[in-house]
Write a structure and sequence with these properties.
This protein has 1532 residues and is an alpha+beta fold. Helices cover 37% and strands 17% of the residues.
């Protein structure tokens, strides 16, 4: 009992200190109970289940390992003592979790409080009350407060009745001290219910008054209980598990009025697409009941069309329709759901039990069109669908008018009784231009409604059968029946919302599909092209139309999938690709997407040391350490690498302070997105190596730099600048710091015991003892690089491949992009000049030498309607001197206040706004200055600087789902910025709303993100919502991005802009001058021309990818398999030159060997060169010979092998390199990690592993009548025996040399190990499968294994080395074959020298060994860390077979790359006598094996410490300590 109290206190203390997540003891105990009684993999939990969420959280932090153990111990002690402790609630308050011990504990209440406080902003003001939106919810002052939740019943306020008599809501909060006020939280909304003394009830949703009503919308959605706005006719449908409906029994004795004994939602299955642990997309069947969540659906007056923003809403509405017993509503939702689903199945019968019957069955059959003709139903439901097919022969212009008229019916009414969005004449013309223009891509100014209006109308036109439309959409080729919509990653949800809203209710009874994932193509139900009817095999029907909405990279990734390629390749002429923000799609730094499988690296100690020394020299601005390169086999490589590192270092200097999108340096505790539990953000931070970031604070899921050398140097930079990131790694590895290493780097700084077994964190040691940082970073850098994976195989797809292989159309507001031939041009094998992909008549190049007037005319053409944009350029050089982000923001406020006193505007658009001198209400963080700060930090600064009465709300964009949010500055309440809340603010503030709301747009949402309600506000109050917008461009020179940032204002003509820019000369900077027309500014002209030239020229990567795309085009492949996978290894091993020449020859043969591709390349080059400002380049006439030479020069430059030629090719390459001015290209090319990716999101299936190809699947089965009885006897349990079987084919073979002798190590796997994710699928070959399937009798099988492996080992190592080994000799070993993935978890059983068995982590435990058929053969067992689990050898020699045998640590070096293995190998080669001395004098009280390095080497270290010569530091010429011994050479 005393122990139980101690353990309980430890758990409680841990919970009190843990403020970052919602883990509790009770949750962990439940999880332990589940996994201890059933196999978790077979429980088939829903993906969004609490169990999976808890597992993700526990896996994200190693501290939870001890926490879980404590919970296990506590459970056992409770059972022993037969006692249970009072439990507690853990709620999130003031942004942190806190513990509340209530008077009466309820698990259900605890779970709800946990979930609700995670999604809503609760706070405590210091008075002891828990508050939401100024309302007191709980009184926390008592030691054990009373925590209660309530139920509320609603009756309809109107006279209209339905089968639902009343609505009851559970889990309701009551305001403290008031029995009349209650709060309901549902679907990210808060409902406040107030009961007046007079008996009346008022209800408000986000402060907008509503009432409960039963509305007859139309015959399809009739008599549905809902919430209706009091001041309008719009209504809200809430779907939640907390809302219960009492349904009238209709006079029947049984409540099963419709003959159903089961809830219908449980009888409908859907196949959902998920992402498994290997980042593979898989399909898994779920009951719809398992997928239910909360949602809010607004149905707009006057047309009351059912519109949803995502498929999840449809599932929730289907459940709602069943609960309220509304069959017509059920039918309409099911129509929609079928159109957006891969596969839906209805379980009518299960065994002999009928599950679906009555009108529900009839309704389902009606939707499936499997009943006789029902004209009455058809008449009801066809009214809910727009029949576009009736306009088949209508002229295009008239058809566009019809579509635009239909479009308005999807909108709600404004207060002036007008539709909110009515397509303008300009939008209609633009839509026609997209359809009819010969140019693939179209330009329309920022804010012209491309996403909200043009995109949905374009989709509707595709889904119609209008002849004129499809004639133009065919683009001169075949008719289109597949539409792929491509948008940037952060805009995918917005695009999906538009397509779902406008495209599910078209053409009643027509079969078409709308998919929100391109990987739906992997499903067998999704077939492209014509298909035969099942009834009539000779009957061929029209192909089903399909729409896919996806991101740029996801589409490219899909094109690396062979099964998708097999469907798409023959059907590609029927596919139309629509690209939104097409300039981002063709951005030269975002063109390529690589999907890779990785392998372990084989860096030896010397290589690791040299990487560190070169990185150190670069970072400190020193020359290449030539003295250290003498012993290298390739000194030239390291000198070139130093030059490259210097170029990277120079590139990131300004970026490392501000933009830093490339690799992210920031503190884990200040991660913006930790609270959202998006695991790839946390993984992106915790990843030991540098990774690409899509914005300053968000890692690209699963992505790594394709340039390993860039990864290595940026990793070093992170290690130096953000050393706290590696606290966790250091804590696990510090005990392996050797005495010699301590003597070299820490002798006079830190005691050896304090360093190795102290409790100070790495970051604390570096701060308290600054001189230790060099030794610490050197120690960790080696560990990190040893664990880093390198590419094994790679497939890549670029945006150019998409342009070459598909008919594409699209649009953008910043139309600056490179020019490529379209699919139509290639298909027709044209020979003329390549037409422009987009109108480039407003481009300006240096060679044009335009006058100011002519430049302004072209620029004005680019501006479109935004012709009166007033801008000032302000120096942002002060940002570099600012160490604190919020201090930078405060300086911006101060500067703007000062400017307001001196700047005189020609025409002040906002003369009435003088509050506190603040003249701006928008900040767009284009460059990403505020990467460490949260929106709460911004809120706090604004409140402190401006006071609580200036701004009342801050608009921001949620990083988890890109939704629009507003944060109340005074209450801290964070709510959706939706229609209701906008109306509330307009009612409260009127035209002064813009003075009370501050807009903060982060770096991730600069491109394409619409800030809502700007146009509605302008139309209503005749002034812009954005007063003045601060654009933090700083070191961003890309004018396209700056214009996009300005374009977050949809009213650019009425908004003033201050663009903060670094590095401006005095004549360009405008501090104190005032705003001017943007086109009259000198810097505008400079940036605009530079932008045109850079987009046209591209860079070496883009022109190289053009060659690769032409190669793929001739090979009829979407993707390219890299021939030179690891450039840096090739350079190091001096094989790069030959391979590059072979690569050049192959490209020349395929690209220039085809007349079509050769002509295309020639036209592309001519088009670029003729616009070059260098007259020599522009006037050069290209011949076939020159093109071939240039092709080779491009390839050489790409692989960093080109040397200056002294001719025109130098100028060609310099021009094609864009703004790059040095010989070496520094590119942000990224690769997608296919293997071992750990992305977690709502569609992540944590219970899945990568599926081997069928040819590599090992199927074993044994039949038994009673499995439980069968497993009780281990001696007859063939299942268990089969899993323990060794396979007589080695999975790992290592050949090593010491002295003049060569030895072999063979490792054989158990069958169970083959079912892990540690094995490469290729190992499970037909030979391996045949061996395993021969298993019938255990003893006979093991005897056969011994016979096969008898001569597989290295023999007796001691006899062959009996004369002793001279110190200083090297162990050289190479991995002959390795089918084990990097960093496996395993146990390894040693049979004899050179022969080992590898099994799962706990497979060779001491208990199971007693019954193991090979128990007499197994001499010792060790795990992947180095712990000795079993030993019969009693060997105490490093040369004799046993746990100290050198072969064991060679294996550990290859498999685990553990630091202790490297220490042992170092000592074995350099200080073998000391190593043996330590082994012989170690008493093994702390355990066996070199894992006990500290204790084992203590005596040896003490002796060495007394030796003067051993403790003195050996210094080299520059005063640095010598490197660690170079003893190991490892080659793969």
């Amino acid at each position: 009992k005393e122990l139980q109290v101690k353990v309980a206190n430890l758990i409680y203390d841990f919970d009190k200190k843990n403020h970052t997540d919602n883990v509790t003891r009770l949750k962990v105990e439940e999880l332990i109970f589940e996994v201890s009684n059933k196999f978790l993999v077979n429980k088939n939990f829903p993906v969004a289940s609490q169990q999976f969420k808890l597992i993700r959280t526990l896996n994200s932090d190693p501290d939870y390992q001890s926490y879980v153990v404590l919970c296990k111990i506590y459970m056992s002690l409770c059972q022993i003592n037969k006692s249970v402790e009072v439990d507690y609630y853990k709620v999130r308050c003031n942004g942190q979790f806190r513990i509340i011990i209530p008077q009466n504990f309820s698990k259900t209440t605890g779970d709800y409080l946990d979930a609700i406080t995670m999604h809503y902003t609760f706070s405590e003001r210091g008075d002891g009350f828990m508050v939401y939106d100024e309302l007191r919810i709980f009184d926390l002052r008592p030691h054990q407060p009373e925590i209660n939740l309530y139920k509320v019943r609603f009756d309809a306020a109107l006279d209209v009745q339905s089968m639902v008599k009343y609505i009851e809501v559970s889990n309701v909060f009551r305001v403290v001290g008031s029995e009349q006020q209650h709060l309901i939280f549902v679907a990210d909304n808060m409902l406040l219910i107030e009961d007046s003394n007079s008996g009346g009830v008022t209800i408000s949703i986000n402060k907008i008054a509503v009432e409960v009503a039963t509305i007859f919308f139309n015959e399809a959605i009739s008599f549905v209980p809902c919430f209706k706005y009091r001041d309008s006719e719009d209504v809200i449908l809430f779907a939640s598990q907390n809302i219960h409906y009492l349904v009238d029994q209709g006079g029947q004795f049984s409540s099963d009025y419709y003959g159903m004994k089961h809830e219908l939602i449980e009888c409908i299955n859907s196949e959902e697409i998920l992402i498994d642990l290997n980042d593979e997309h898989v399909f898994k069947a779920f009951k719809l009941s398992e997928l239910l969540t909360e949602s809010k659906t607004v149905i707009l007056f006057p047309d009351y069309l059912l519109q949803v923003s995502n498929r999840q809403q449809l599932i929730n509405l289907l459940d709602l329709s069943i609960h309220i017993r509304n069959v017509s509503f059920f039918i309409l939702v099911l129509f929609y759901l079928r159109r957006s689903s891969v596969a839906i199945e209805f379980v009518e019968k299960e065994k002999n039990v009928t599950k679906i019957s009555g009108p529900w069955k009839e309704a389902i059959l009606y939707v499936l069109n499997k009943t006789s003709l029902n004209r009455h139903y058809d008449k009801i439901f066809e009214r809910q669908f727009f029949d576009l097919n009736q306009h088949e022969h209508m002229p295009l212009c008239e058809f566009i008018e019809v579509l635009c008229d239909n479009f308005t019916k999807y909108q709600g009414f404004t207060e002036e009784n007008e539709y909110q969005i009515v397509p303008t004449d300009k939008q209609k013309l633009f839509l026609k231009k997209i359809i009819c223009s010969e140019e693939c891509f179209q330009f329309s100014e920022v804010g012209s409604g491309k996403t909200k209006v043009i995109l949905p109308l374009l989709c509707q036109m595709f889904l119609s059968n209008n002849k004129d439309v499809h004639k133009h959409l065919s683009r001169g080729g075949k008719s289109k029946n597949v539409l792929v919509i491509l948008v940037p990653e952060h805009l995918v949800q917005d695009a999906q919302t538009q397509v779902y809203r406008y495209c599910l209710n078209l053409n009643f009874r027509e079969e078409y599909r709308v998919f929100d994932s391109i990987f739906s193509l992997m499903h067998q139900n999704v077939q492209l092209g014509e298909s035969s009817s099942k009834r009539f095999l000779n009957f061929t029907r029209k192909p089903m139309k399909m729409i896919f909405v996806t991101s740029f990279n996801q589409f490219k990734k899909a094109l690396t999938n062979d099964s998708i390629c097999a469907k798409v390749q023959p059907h590609r002429e029927h596919i139309l690709v629509v690209a939104d923000e097409v300039d981002d799609f063709l951005d030269r730094n975002k063109l390529v997407f690589n999907i890779c499988s990785n392998k372990s690296n084989a860096f030896d100690r010397e290589t690791l040391d040299l990487y560190f020394e070169v990185s150190l020299a670069t970072y400190n601005g020193r020359k290449c350490p030539d003295a250290l390169l003498v012993s290298s086999s390739n000194p030239q490589y390291w000198k070139q690498l130093h030059d490259k590192f210097c170029a990277i270092h120079a590139e990131i200097q300004d970026a490392s302070r501000s933009i830093n999108k490339s690799f992210g340096i920031f503190n884990q505790q200040t991660l913006k997105h930790c609270s959202s539990n998006i695991m790839h953000d946390i993984e992106g931070y915790k990843s030991l190596i540098a990774r690409p970031y899509e914005s300053v604070n968000r890692a690209m899921p699963g992505s790594y730099f394709s340039d390993v050398e860039r990864t290595i140097y940026l990793t070093y930079v992170i290690l130096i600048q953000d050393i706290a990131k590696y606290d966790e790694l250091f804590q696990g590895e510090r005990k392996f710091i050797s005495f010699e290493y301590w003597s070299s780097y820490f002798l006079h700084q830190l005691d050896y015991d304090d360093l190795v077994y102290g409790h100070e964190k790495l970051s604390e040691i570096a701060q308290n003892y600054p001189k230790t940082k060099d030794g610490l970073t050197r120690f960790l850098f080696e560990i990190i690089l040893r664990r880093m994976e390198i590419r094994d195989k790679s497939r890549s797809v670029s945006s150019i491949d998409v342009i070459f292989n598909f008919d594409c159309i699209g649009f953008t507001g910043t139309p600056f992009l490179d020019n490529y031939p379209s699919f139509s041009y290639i298909r027709q094998q044209r020979e003329d000049e390549i037409p422009d992909l987009i109108d480039r008549s407003f481009y300006v190049y240096s060679c044009d030498d335009l006058s100011e007037t002519d430049f302004e005319k072209r620029f004005e053409k680019f501006q479109g309607r935004n012709k009166n944009v007033l801008v000032e350029y302000v120096s942002s050089d002060f940002v570099r001197d600012s160490n604190e982000e919020m201090l930078t923001l405060e300086k911006i406020f101060e500067r703007e206040e000062l400017k307001d006193n001196v700047i005189k505007y020609d025409e002040d658009p906002n003369p009435e706004l003088t509050d506190n001198g603040i003249r701006f209400n928008v900040i767009v963080d284009l460059c990403g200055i505020f990467k460490r700060s949260s929106i709460d930090d911004v809120c706090s600064l604004i409140k402190t600087h401006c006071g609580p009465d200036q701004f009342h709300y801050i608009y921001h964009i949620d990083q988890a789902d890109n939704s629009d949010r507003v944060l109340c500055i005074n209450s801290g309440n964070d709510v959706q910025f939706d229609q209701e809340f906008y109306k509330y603010m307009c009612k409260k503030y009127g035209a002064n709303l813009r003075k009370r709301i501050f807009f903060f747009v982060d770096n991730r949402n600069v491109i394409g993100k619409d800030i809502p309600f700007q146009l509605i506000y302008q139309r209503q109050f005749r002034q812009p919502l954005f007063i003045k917008s601060i654009i933090l461009a700083h070191d961003v020179d890309d004018f396209s991005k700056i214009w996009q940032a300005m374009g977050r204002s949809r009213t650019m003509n009425g908004t003033i802009f201050s663009i903060y820019k670094s590095g401006m000369s005095n004549e360009i900077a405008q501090d104190g001058v005032g705003v001017l027309d943007i086109k009259k500014q000198k810097l505008t002209r400079k940036l605009y021309i530079r932008n045109c030239e850079q987009k046209m020229a591209g860079n070496i990567s883009s022109i190289y990818l053009t060659l690769i795309s032409l190669y793929n085009l001739n090979k009829q492949s979407f993707y390219y398999c890299d021939e030179i996978v690891n450039t840096f290894l090739e350079k190091m091993e001096r094989t790069i030159s030959e391979n590059v020449v072979n690569h050049e020859d192959e490209l020349k043969k395929i690209v220039l060997g085809s007349a079509v591709s050769a002509r295309i390349l020639l036209h592309i080059l001519i088009d670029k060169f003729q616009r070059c400002s260098n007259r020599t380049v522009a006037s050069e006439i290209l011949t076939e010979k020159k093109v071939e030479t240039l092709l080779r020069q491009i390839v050489k430059q790409k692989f960093e092998q080109r040397i200056f030629s002294g001719d025109i090719n130098d100028q060609f390459i310099l021009f094609l390199s864009g703004e790059q001015k040095n010989h070496m290209e520094i590119s942000y090319t990224k690769q997608q990690q296919k293997q071992r990716q750990k992305q977690q999101n709502k569609t992540q299936d944590n219970d899945a592993m990568g599926i081997f190809d069928k040819k590599n699947q090992l199927l074993l089965s044994i039949d038994t009548d009673n499995y439980f009885q069968y497993t009780l006897k281990q001696q007859t349990d063939l299942i268990k025996f089969s899993l323990n079987m060794p396979v007589s084919v080695p999975i790992l073979t290592i050949i090593y040399e010491f002295g003049d002798k060569e030895h072999t190590i063979n490792v054989f796997p158990t069958v169970q190990f083959l079912y892990s994710h540690h094995v490469h699928p290729s190992y499970v070959s037909q030979d391996v499968q045949s061996i395993v399937k021969k298993f019938t009798e255990p003893s006979k099988f093991y005897k056969q294994f011994n016979t096969v492996t008898e001569n597989a080992g290295s023999g007796n190592f001691v006899d062959r080395q009996s004369k002793g080994v001279a110190q200083g000799r090297q162990i050289r070993f190479k991995v002959k074959m390795n089918k084990v993935r990097q960093s496996p978890q395993y146990t390894i059983a040693a049979l004899r020298p050179g022969v080992f068995l590898i099994g799962m982590k706990d497979q060779f435990n001491i208990h199971d060994l007693q019954n193991h058929p090979m128990r007499k053969d197994i001499q010792y067992v060790m795990d992947d860390i180095g712990f000795v689990l079993y030993d019969t050898t009693a060997s105490r020699s490093v040369d004799s077979f046993g746990p100290y045998f050198i072969e064991q640590y060679i294996l550990m070096e290859v498999l685990s790359k553990h630091e202790v293995a490297q220490n042992v190998l170092d000592y074995y080669c350099g200080k073998k006598e000391a190593l043996q001395f330590g082994v012989e004098n170690y008493k093994e009280l702390q355990g066996k094996g070199f894992i006990c390095w500290r204790f084992l080497m203590n005596e040896s270290a003490t002796v060495e410490k007394d030796s003067k010569n051993e403790t003195e530091m050996d210094m080299i010429d520059d005063g640095n300590p010598t490197k660690r011994s170079k003893s190991i050479t490892l080659a793969l």
